[in-house]
Amino acid sequence: MRKFRQLIWLGCLLAATVTNPVAAQTSDTESNSPPTFGPRVGVRYTTEGPGFEPFTSFEGFVPLQQSPGNNLTFLEGRLLLDNNANLGGNVILGHRLYSQSGNRTYGGYFAYDTRDTGKNVFNQLGVGFESLGENLDFRINGYIPIGDRSQQTSEQTFTSPGFQQNFLLMNTSRVRQFEQQVSGFDTEVGTRLISLGRGSLRGYAGVYYYDAGNEDSFGVKGRLEARPNDLLNLSLQVQNDGIFDTRAFLSLGVNFPGSGPRRGSATRDSPLARLGQSVERQFAIVVDEQTEIENTAVTLFNPTTNQAFQILHVNLGQGAGNGTIENPFGSLQNALNVAKPNQIVYVQSGTNPGIPAFSIPNGVSLLSSGPVQRINTVQSGNILLPLSGSGVRPLVTGTVTLGNSNTLDGFAINGVSGPGIRGMNINNTTIQDNIISNSITTDASNLGNGISLTNATGNINITDNSIRNNAEKAISIDNNAGQVALSIGNNAIADNVNGIKLNLVGTAQGTGQITNNNIANSGTGVDVNLGQNAKLNNLAISDNTIENQAQGLQFRASDNAQSTLNVSNNTIRNLTGDGMNFLGDKNSRTQLTVSGNTINNANGDGIDIDLLDNARATATVSNNQILNSGATGIQADADNDSQLRLVLDSNTVRGSKNQGISIFSGAGGGTAKIFASVRLNALTGNNVSGAAIGDFDAQTFDASTTCLQLRNNTGGNFALVNNGGTLQVENTLPTNTGTVNQTGTTTVARGTCGF
Hints:
The protein is mainly β. The chain is elongated and about 145 Å long. The N and C termini lie far apart (97 Å). The strands form 8 sheets. The chain has a 17-stranded parallel β-sheet, with helices on one face. The chain has a 15-stranded parallel β-sheet with strand order 22-27-30-33-36-39-42-45-48-51-54-57-60-62-64, with no helix packed on it. Among the domains are: 253 residues, Porin; 86 residues, no CATH class. 3% of the residues lie in helices and 57% in strands. The longest helix has 17 residues.
């Protein structure tokens, strides 16, 4: 405001100078008939300028009181409509008087302005003074906001994680957009340059001041004004200031013919005639679009400890640092030497000829910036770790030995003598997003497995790894004690001797899932072995693709082992052996569900269930599609005092070399028992070799017993043969489509078999 007052005084001093009656010259002789002014209306278009959009104004000028040749009191009004259909307006009350001695018109006005920007509404008061002469003009206008000058239009929040020293931060930028009403003044001095038609072309130069809240600026401007007659006026202005830079805008106004007649003989461009001109000022309220950015940073906490994350940074081959982001360690081992539980060692590949064998301390997470890394935080949930996703995984050339509660994520482990990753007597481990390849077997205690875990307990997560070309198994888990919860998923496993092997014996117990893995070109895709009282509770093997193997899935339970196994929605194809093989032996107890699988081109049986030596099993095999088996589509055998409770429901078996479904009891001797419900199966095009009995057979041997419910199946030939023992058949045979042949069977009432 101090600058504003100073410029007002400067303007008044300049006005007094240019309007000095002594200096003013009279070049126009006024007649004895001074002009009078009537109302007029017009329209004006103004192009985009500093702080305003292009707009059209509809204008009116109304004389309120006039003394011809002496003074005029008038009212001006404008309706402003910008190109976005937003409204504004002005109301101006002005008074002018003519000095005959100085041949000069003096005037002043008060104004009220309003503007709707489409987002906010602004209001201001205006005040101005003018001195208009034959050859020299002076004007000064002031603009005084009323109401709230600064109004917010939008707010956005942007967050991005970052590092500082050994801490993980969440940087937040709050970006607010404002419309800031500009106050200030403008003043100009001008002169007539040439006569133009019945009017003149005048040129002006001036200064102005803008106050836009958090910034202000003085500016300079130049303006040309052409008034060739009473109907047309044209103004071109160029200005420059520190807020809007250089701007040029054009204003073209037209008065409607017949409006505002002027009577009298004064020259149209004389000072006396200019009593009736419109006020020259800025009609649209100037609004500056401003941005305010507020930056904050919050240290992120580890949800496990509820303390700030501690991250040790490594940039391989980049010198000896202290582990901060600003000065990282140059070698991984230097970081591991000082790493403590719940810390993260974060590795950038840098220049890396190969990291030798190393061990990860207990409780430490080892991550690389190669894959996209996400980390869970207390304040911001799951976030993307900065620098991750480079696509370059650090190369490791020696075995990685795990400790307890480790995470190993984002490394390329290649050509190791022995297993790529080893863990013994560990718990709660995550191995993810690594490439493990070309491990070499050196001796029986140093097998070339991709991942080799012994007595791994707690939560064991092995996900999103690529495991290829290893001399032994891709993943081997061998436990004789403890409880393990497995999550083995989304791994790409190819060209290993075997795929996934789980071996539980002794007091070992397990649960979990093996899902969404792609296993190819190995021996057995998934191999599960239980023995010596081990227990497997609710292991799900689902949604895997297993192809080009010797055998798809193998499950063995013996020596009092107990298990619950769910095998579902797997795709198994192109095998030299069985698609799935389930073996229960030596007092084992198994509850098995096999559903929704597709098995195609297994050179052995599609699904083979075998029980021996007092084993007990309940098996439900449903909604599977088994195509082109090299032996039998579904084979179930029980021998040596074992018992099988079997449901075969809604399976499609087609193109088997032998039978579509075959159930044998006691073929290996003993007093085995099978209770079987075979229903709603579609058996077509089987017995391709022509050597089997038909699409379906059930046979008993020795002292064994089979109780069979056979209904609503579709097939060609169903053979029921008692070769010894007892073959009971529920009285439901007419419900099947096909020919049922019975030899030595006993027909029993429906429900006898317990289904």
